[in-house]
Specification:
Blueprint: E1 8-13, H1 17-29, E2 34-39, H2 42-51, E3 56-60, H3 68-76, E4 83-88, H4 93-101, E5 106-109, H5 113-153, E6 158-162, E7 165-169, H6 171-177, H7 196-210, E8 218-224, E9 230-242, E10 245-253, H8 259-270, H9 280-295, E11 301-308, H10 311-318, H11 323-336, E12 343-346, E13 351-357, H12 361-377, E14 380-382, E15 385-387, E16 391-398, H13 405-421, E17 427-430, H14 432-455, E18 459-465, E19 467-468, E20 475-485, E21 488-490, H15 492-501, H16 505-525, E22 530-535, H17 538-541, H18 546-557, E23 564-569, H19 570-575, H20 577-589, E24 593-599, H21 605-608, E25 616-619, H22 631-646, E26 650-653, H23 659-668, E27 672-673
Parallel strand pairs: 1-2, 1-3, 3-4, 4-5, 16-17, 20-22, 22-23, 23-24, 24-25, 25-26, 26-27
Antiparallel strand pairs: 6-7, 6-10, 8-9, 9-10, 11-13, 11-16, 12-13, 14-15, 18-20, 19-27, 20-21
């Protein structure tokens, strides 16, 4: 690490300059070299971030001029990697949770100098580690790219041979021997490249190499092309490795081409012959270079993908034979509207790309709109047809956080597909900061829906049968929750995280329990003895009034307690052991049951039963994966069932996928089975009351 890297560029969010100075003195007293700045409002924050990108932002939670969430969002805008640390004198649980939720990486106690110093040092070390990893990844990609580029650009035919077989060859090697693609010679013996007159001598050499003997430095012989013709060659050998395996590098020395011809070949290798744009290989190499620059902190770079809307329809109009003409005209139009410094290429069959640098996000969008408008206005004359080719454009800003070629390609491609699915003829630019804002809007939308569902009875119960393999009396169902949405039922994975984040799960749990008790009471009156398995969330365990409320609900419905079995995942019970144990103890007094879901996923699951008296153990779904073929899972299920029965517990196998699994589960001693193979969750139970 250089001396410059040890100086922390620090931005303090403080209302008071005196308080900022206190923190600066505190850190410097701990031997931390600083280059500090302060901001007390949004204008000052913007000015400081423009002046220099800080390594760390210390945010005083008592500051009134700015909010932590806004500072974190601003700091991360454009893919920057800045460690935001909240500073407070009172670290309550709510304060800690709120700080991390707002975007802080850490929280430091202002009245403990050593704590502030250690947190700042740790976060700065972490930041430098992330930067080093990105630089190393970029350097590795660049090294690999250069090695491949060097190999492919060499005018000498070069191949790597392992145990006499080709494992790698460059373009010159393929061209010399008359092959178009490496797949044609992959795994082929190098002996096939030797003319018959020299084959026996070369075979003897290969045997010596297989015994570990060193090859000669040079070997003169006749080589043989794929068409059977031969030519004089000088082979040079060198020890090498490929993908971790030792091998031989073989070079066929040919007459040196003239300089102008070599340059012409290099240009041709980097160009797409149809459009005269750069080819995909060259563009990916340039993208890797830009990724490396981004990892070093360079900004204002992007990849933009351009694709004609309804290209298949265009082909039908102009004809397949004129497709190359149309693509060439489109490429020429695009080239006229970009700068010389931009790199335009053909990324796919009908997908163009532009690697842009030196423009900010707004300028990138403007370029996209310029290109879109140019295509919208242009009529292409192809053959005897006149066509209009509207385009969709998807782009991704390249920043320090997404300094990965595959990530950028995926983001740009996703943005392009989104533009197309929204109707086409539009520009969609992926920006991490904008995405965060969109996610925030989306979360607010879901929160409104959940609150409305709670207030207006907008939830729906679904029922999935739990089938007894040993003839247990009555019917058993698991209760599954859905939310009524504008276009149909919504599954929990969409709304549960939002409800949990905003503390709404206790209210939802009560709605489910109340509705389940009403449904049970109706079935009991109709003569159907039924047991419901009802999921409970950890947030409800802290509700001291829940157990008395359940007892009153059962009493009002005149329902037996053992008609209800509450269930929670094993991992959730472990992390909330004390309240879970108290809750289960209260359930036993009402004769309600309790089930542990995902059982067997812990290090010692049965140890948990010493603390929580569960009636049912619902086996972890991982044991059900390809059960008929997986002997290890079969043995594990049998072991769990044996231990469960010895402890007086009933077992349930969820996610049953096929008929073959049923007989295996029966022989393993499983008591109940459940899964979509048996029956998918439905709004109406098998014997619904009128």
């Amino acid at each position: 690490m250089t001396k410059q890297d040890t100086v922390i560029k620090l931005l303090l969010i403080e209302d008071s300059e005196d308080e900022a100075e206190q923190l600066i003195s505190m850190l410097r007293n701990g031997g931390i070299a600083l280059r500090p700045a302060r901001a007390g409002n949004s204008d000052e924050l913007g000015t400081q971030l423009e002046a220099q990108t800080p390594d760390i932002i210390l945010f005083n939670l008592g500051a009134k001029g700015l909010k932590l969430a806004d500072v974190a969002a601003t700091a991360n805008r454009g893919g920057k990697d800045i460690a935001v640390i909240a500073v407070t004198t009172n670290a309550s649980e709510d304060t800690i949770v709120s700080a991390f939720a707002a975007g802080a990486r850490a929280l430091a106690l202002r009245n403990r100098a050593e704590h502030v110093q250690s947190i700042v040092k740790r976060e700065f070390e972490g930041l430098n580690m992330r930067r080093s990893v990105r630089r190393l990844e970029s350097s590795l990609r660049e090294t690999e790219r250069r090695c491949d580029a060097l190999l492919d650009s060499s005018r000498d035919p070069i191949a790597y041979v392992h145990e006499g077989m080709h494992v790698r060859a460059n373009k010159a090697y393929l061209e010399v021997f008359g092959f178009e693609d490496f797949e044609e010679i992959e795994g082929m013996s190098v002996l096939d490249m030797i003319a018959p007159d020299d084959a026996d001598d070369f075979k003897t050499l290969l045997k010596k190499l297989s015994k570990g003997e060193k090859p000669p430095q040079k070997l003169n012989l006749k080589a043989q092309r794929s068409d059977g013709s031969s030519f004089d060659a000088t082979m040079e050998f060198a020890e090498a490795s490929y993908e971790g395996e030792s091998c031989q590098q073989i070079i066929f020395r040919q007459q040196t081409m003239n300089t102008e011809l070599a340059k012409e070949l290099d240009v041709l290798r980097s160009k797409d012959l149809v459009t005269d744009l750069f080819n995909r290989q060259h563009c990916l190499a340039e993208l890797d270079r830009m990724i490396g620059d981004a990892a070093k902190g360079k900004r204002d770079q992007a990849l933009m993908l351009v694709e004609a809307d309804n290209f298949r329809h265009l082909l039908d109009t102009v004809g397949l034979g004129n497709a190359d003409l149309l693509l060439g005209d489109m490429a020429n139009l695009m080239r006229r509207h970009i700068k010389e410094s931009d790199i335009a290429g053909r990324f796919g069959e009908h997908t163009f790309g532009v690697l842009v640098s030196g423009r900010n996000a707004d300028e990138m969008r403007q370029l996209g709109e310029t290109l879109r408008h140019a295509f919208e206005e242009r009529i292409f004359e192809v053959g005897k047809q006149s066509v209009n080719a509207n385009v969709s454009i998807g782009g991704a800003l390249i920043g320090e956080k997404n300094a990965n070629a595959q990530a950028v390609l995926t983001q740009a491609s996703t943005a392009l597909r989104t533009a197309q699915t929204e109707g086409g003829n539009r520009v969609n630019l992926f920006d991490a900061s904008a995405k965060d804002k969109a996610d925030e809007e989306k979360n607010r939308h879901w929160l409104t829906l959940v609150k409305d569902a709670l207030a207006n009875n907008g939830f729906i119960l679904f029922y999935q049968p739990i089938i007894s393999l040993h003839g247990a009396e009555g019917e058993f169902y698991e209760i599954l929750l859905r939310m009524q949405g504008p276009k149909g039922e919504i599954t929990p994975n969409f709304f549960m995280p939002i409800a949990e984040h905003h503390g709404l799960m206790p209210g939802i749990d009560r709605w489910v329990i109340s509705s389940a008790i009403k449904a049970l009471a109706e079935r009991e009156k109709a003569g159907h003895k039924t047991t419901f398995f009802v999921k409970l969330t950890p947030q409800s365990l802290d509700d001291q009034t829940l157990l008395p409320w359940i007892a009153q609900q059962l009493k009002n419905a005149r329902l037996r307690g053992d008609a209800l079995v509450f269930e929670m995942p094993e991992s959730k019970v472990v992390t909330s052991l004390k309240p879970a144990r108290a809750f289960v103890t209260g359930l036993k007094q009402m004769h309600c049951g309790f089930a542990l879901e995902q059982f067997g996923s812990g290090l010692n699951s049965f140890q948990l039963l010493k603390h929580v008296d569960a009636n049912y153990l619902k086996l972890d779904r991982s044991f059900m994966a390809e059960l008929p073929k997986n002997k290890e899972n079969q043995e594990k299920i049998k072991e769990l069932c044996d231990q469960a029965h010895h402890a007086g517990k009933l077992t349930v196998a969820e996610f049953v996928e096929d008929a073959a699994s049923m007989s295996i589960l029966f022989s393993c001693g499983v008591n109940f089975v459940q899964g979509n193979f048996l029956q998918e969750p439905e709004k109406i139970m098998a014997y619904e009351t009128a």
